[in-house]
Sequence to fold (286 residues):
Amino acid sequence: MKMILVLTDFSRNSAHAARSAAWLAEKFHAGLLLWNCSPKIPIMPGYLGGAAVAEAVAGTGEGEGLLDVAVRQLDDYISSTGGTYKPRLFTCYKEGSLERELALQLDEHPVELIVMGSAASSCSVEHVFSGSDTFKVLETATCPVLVVPPRAGLDQLEKIVFATDFEPQDLNALRHLQELFSMFDLDIELVHVTLNGDKDDSTIAKEKQFLTQLSGFDKPINYKEIRGKDVTGRLNRISKQTGADLLSMTHHQYSVFKRLLTYSQAKKELAHQKIPLLLFPFNAKR
Fold:
């Protein structure tokens, strides 16, 4: 059975992301694994504040209880949609390092897709959806990662904007994208943002070679070059203008954008992302 892994921290944002995952699971005929990892924190003696720490961080029993509540709520939501296929729901609770536990999970039980929310939750332990942990998930993932913003979800999929820098891994990601969503009649628009209107000979040569290889795809993909000073803002605008349901890019391209922004700006961009963002990590397997 195909499986979609949904990272949860029991917040409203993660529940919102899980509903988008449920919509995809119905289309994929896949199962849903609701997955939580809490950090291990040593319990100190009471006079050192240990009791307070123990109350602030969910232990195994409380964490598993919250996971049971989350999966029941998701099951109720799926039942209310009246879909023709009802995904099977599974849960997994872990304690420890997010990267280590996620790597072990994916090694033992590969999944088609990881779905997560994009903003920090209001829970006492904000260990999953801070910006830094979004990057940790990308470093660990072996499949595409769908980041769902609080202000939008995924209930249709007709058009995707894919950002490229003409790197070879972009071609692999585009093939993976077409394969992953083969059950949809997708319109994929490939875009490249040229900063300040400058494009040197090396970039022109890379573009020509890239587009030549792209022309060999079985299903055609439209290409558009756009100009601007703000890469992420320009991509958000083109996504809005074209009515895209999803913005996609490779981890390489995302890392480029991250270097162009300060860390706080990168977190702000994720928090204000208007449509879901699909990222292809370096380690993505087809």
